[in-house]
Amino acid sequence: MKKAITVGVGLLAVTGLLAGCSGATDSADSSGEPITLTFQSLAWQETTIAATDSIVADWNAANPDVQVDITQGSWDNVQDQLVTQFQGGTAPDIIHYESAAIAGFAEQGYLADLSPYLGDDLKNGITDDIWKTVTSSDGSIVGVPTLLQSYVVFANADAFATAGVELPVGDEMTWDDFATVSSELTADGTYGVGWGLKSPTATVMNMGLGFDGTFFETKDGASTIAVGDAELEVPERIHAMAYDDKSIEPVSMTLSGTDALPGFFGGDYAMFFGGNFYSQQMTESAPEGFNWVVLPPLAGSAGTAQAANPQTMSVAAESEHVEEAAAFVEFFADAENLSALGQGDWLVPTTEDGRAALLSETGGDGGWAEILKSGEALAMAPFQSAVGYVQWKDQIATPALQQYFANAITTEELQAQLQDGFASIG
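Below the sequence we write its predicted structure tokens.
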């Protein structure tokens, strides 16, 4: 969010796949020199970098006339970087990002419509709900969704046993049950849960869908916000666990998820809430014998719904080789490739074939069965198409939620800041 991952794609498979991609393998520029496509990748974990390099190497070996050159980007500054690149006419041909963030670029015309270039197998292999996350208001597909993150609760099974608390099982776990279990595990200087809430907006927005908390509505290119009871359910429940039940370890709430993880390993808390990608760090960094499991997905009044904000692969509208770039993007989304990338990042492939390949290769071990289950209810969320969402998230929502979780403002003040703040950035 490691060990090298080999992407098993033979040249025959590559060539066969590309045969349905408008003859991309026969492309070359007018001088007869190979076309070179720039691909800005945001992969940062060693395993995912290795998988990405392998995918590109397989493509380049099978496509001497269309070569892909990786450039390394960073999640930390990619938004500002892309703004500069698009405005300066220097954007890479192929862009790795996420659906919630590309919406603004798409509306400004910076991303190519990929729908004419994508095959039916890929289109049919991803649900309509996920395609909606990359579909513009005019119906253009401005990116191919590749990997999904869900939020899960990790548990120290031995800590449960020591406390005499049964591990939740089944298809889902209600928020009420989660709070009860967390309270039961809080005693003798240890806490029920550690929760890295330094950057809390994504958690609140994603988990809010489980209570029908939508926050935004967008019509005719204009977005409005409404923060009511449903939208406040998740922050209020977290606040109650922290200050009424006192079952969330206080220091963890000021930390990032990564910084809060050592406390889970050290026994400071029996549960840890975070993105499913933390499974990688569980596997590699947990103390020997640390018995961790993934609990059933959290369910609110509207079920286990979470926002689908997939990683995406887009093509710059200014690219001179949109068709060839789209062919590479489709190849990138091959089942075995997405399985390798998913294992590298511990994220859920968007395609049915990709998930099946990952389940087959892992046997569901290491929390994968539960992680894949948690990805089944992911769907388009209204905030993903809200104009100005990224600015609101960074400038308004994150500082307001930080204050609320520090018990520095009331629920009413949080509500006002979230609503009034969105109006102020318009």
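The chain has a mean pLDDT of 90.
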